[in-house]
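Researcher: We are triaging several targets before committing to wet-lab work. For this one, the compound of interest is zinc ion. I'm pasting the protein sequence and the ligand SMILES. What I need is the predicted three-dimensional arrangement of the protein with the ligand bound, expressed as structure tokens, so it can go straight into our comparison scripts without reformatting.
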Amino acid sequence: MSIRITFHGAARMVTGSKHLLEVNGRRVLLDCGMFQGEGRESDAKNRHFGFDPRRIDAVVLSHAHIDHSGLLPRLVKEGFQGPIFATPATRDLCAIMLEDSARIQEGDHARDLRHAREGEHVLDPLYAVEDIAPMLGRFIDVPYGREHEAVPGVRFTYTDAGHILGSAAVNLVVDDGERARRILFTADVGRYVDRLLPEPAAVPQADIIITESTYGDRDHPKQAEADEELLRQVLHTCVEKKGKLIIPAFSVGRTQEVLYVLNRLSNAGALPRIPVFVDSPLAVDATRVSRDHSDLFAPELQVELEKDPDLFDFPGVEFVQNVERSKQLNERQQPCIIISASGMMEAGRVRHHLVHSLGNPRNTVLAVGFCAPGTLGDEIISGADMVHIFGEPVRVRAEVARLEFYSAHADRHELMRFLEGQDPRQVDRVFLVHGAPRAMAGLHTLLEQRGFRHVEEPPQGRTYDL
Ligand SMILES: [Zn+2]
């Protein structure tokens, strides 16, 4: 009889979340995330799971972000035949996000083939659009709060993690016939601030905790969410200057938050009468999925929903799907707001809008999210006079503004608050995952101060007997 866990990703780093739980020879995979941001190294790790997909009995998925779900199509393609458990909103988001991921990979692959030197070997995409349907066929809906059996000996209950739509902490009870162990897998923890989503729900006592540590060494700055006053000013100047307002935003999450704020302004009669275009196919789909699951929004929003059943739709908003319409917007001279992906301005249609808008001082670019150092977004926010887009130099004459929105990740005090209900004397072991070494070290110290014993930072591929 035995219970074991092996950390196959998000080990001393923030991507590739993948933890293999083995109970009496049955194998349950917690998350199946993609490694990102390390170029060739990520690619090699994404091609070799470190276990045989055919011998996995079930997947329990925490949420739809690609670093947690991104290799599911490949797992199925390589012979996984079991169920994939997820909340209904996570399933719906996976359907659109993983198809988008497949399209991006196919596009990159086609470009690599065009640019390859003679005889050069170009690797296939990790998966293609045709691999999405077989994967979706394996999904089984498990709503929050309902206990479910993953395999004999492993039961679990999802609780709302408040991180993205449908996100869950996984509360497992694992029984090898000799004793039962309660395991909490926090996955990604959300915020205790006013957002579209509720605060993370309380979780039951655990014997073993596997916790994320993304911001384990930091607190988020105190801020009022999406300072409406600043947004009103930006809108006002934009209309006065008869310019365009370009808002680069991530399709899933941030775009809906921006739409919600604009909708609120519209309801208050404070939105200028200019058209608003949501120009990203994924954002259009993600907004539909969010609307379908508006019962998951924070309690205060439920009150608003009674008066306004669609918090993302208001007079003047148009959701743009096709490329031709998107191109028309490039040429458009009249004032308008264009919300387009990606948030860091590195990919997606927003680059075309920037090429057409940056050179004109009448226009404004409003950054609403984190832009990693070295990205186009970071250059523009930092005040560069000249940037390169599609290899061409583009002068920056447009006004550049920033509006802070809340991060989707708990900071160190919020992580501690999430674990507040846990009696450290009952917890045998804490595994830190999903964090850079410095962040882990910060949370490690805090946990020990709170009385948690045996805090570990498992390296990639290490197995532990529980
Ligand atoms: Zn996440």
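Researcher: Any quick observations?
Model: The CA atoms of residues 349 and 437 lie 35 Å apart.
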